[in-house]
Amino acid sequence: MEREFRPQQNNEYYLQMIKLTTPFCDEAISRLKVGDVVSISGYIYCGRDAVLPLICKELETGEWENRGIDLQGGVIFHTAVSPAGVGPTSSNKLEIEGSFEVLSKFGGIKLHLGKGAIKSETVKMLAENNAVFAIIPPVTALLESQTMERECIAWPELGMEALYRIRVENYQAIIAAAHGESIY
Q1: How far apart are alpha carbons 184 and 176 in whole angstroms?
Q2: Which class for 136: exposed (0-12), middle (13-18), buried (19 or more C-beta within 10 A)?
Q3: pLDDT tens digits along 40-76
């Protein structure tokens, strides 16, 4: 994971894209800085208001282990999965931002993916758990073309707000909170 500036033909500089593949190791996350542009490939988990509190409850009680779903080093994308595709929802909703700590500490989630500003307390907690928050623009059509597989893996009765695992190629995002710093 290199950070290097490369000149373009017009002498403007750009930061090289950092390519990440799930699951992430602690070292990959510890190298990320606020403002880094990342390209994420591999399997990621999708959930929002309805399912995240259910996951947190099971992680806290130990029931989660019965599901056989390993979140360690994973990504949780704050979205529903519909036939139209996926797109981020606001990460600062109570049910979503309130899940960051449990998902990071007990579930091993390393990257929370969504949109919007998060609280300074959440930024600090992410740093304590070597996890980061990345933002992704609301570009459902583009993300759909980069979503290769989708599978409902828990709580199917919640429909498009159930827990999904999707396989993605080159989802691009910007690191918005890392190591106690935030772009907001």
Answers
A1: 8
A2: buried
A3: 999 999 999 999 999 999 999 999 999 999 999 999 9
For 54, the enclosing helix (H) or strand (E) is helix 52-61
Residue 157 buriedness (CB in 10 A; 0-12 / 13-18 / 19+): exposed
> How far, in Å, CA of 161 to CA of 184, rounded?
28
pLDDT digits 0-9 by tens, 108-163 = 999 999 999 999 999 999 999 999 999 987 787 778 888 999 999 999 999 999 99
| pTM score above 0.85 | no
* CA 172/CA 142 separation, integer angstroms: 10
CATH code that applies to domain 13-182:
3.20.130.10
In angstroms, rounded to a whole number, what is the distance separating the alpha carbons of residues 125 and 161?
26
Which amino acid, one-letter code, is at 79?
T
DSSP assignments along 92-142, one per residue: TSHHHHTTHHHHHHTT---EEEEBS---HHHHHHHHHTT-EEEE----HHH
Residues 178 and 11: their CA atoms lie apart, in Å, by: 30
